[in-house]
Amino acid sequence: MSRSKKLIVTALFLIGACILLYPAVSNKLAERHQAEMISRYEQTVEELPKTDMKSEWEKAVKYNESVTGMSVEDPFILGSGSVLPGNYKDVLNVEEKEGVMGYIEIPAIDVMLPIYHGVSERVLRRGVGHMETTALPIGGKGTHSVLASHRALSTAKLFTDLDRMKEGDLFYIHVLDHLLTYEVDQISVIEPEDTDALRPIADKEYITLLTCTPYGVNSHRLLVRGEKICDEIVKESEEKESDTAKKERDITEMIAYGAAVFALVSLFVAAVAVCVRKMKKKRRTRGRKKKAGKRSLKRRKR
Question: CATH 3.10.129.10: does it fit domain 51-236?
Answer without folding.
Answer: no
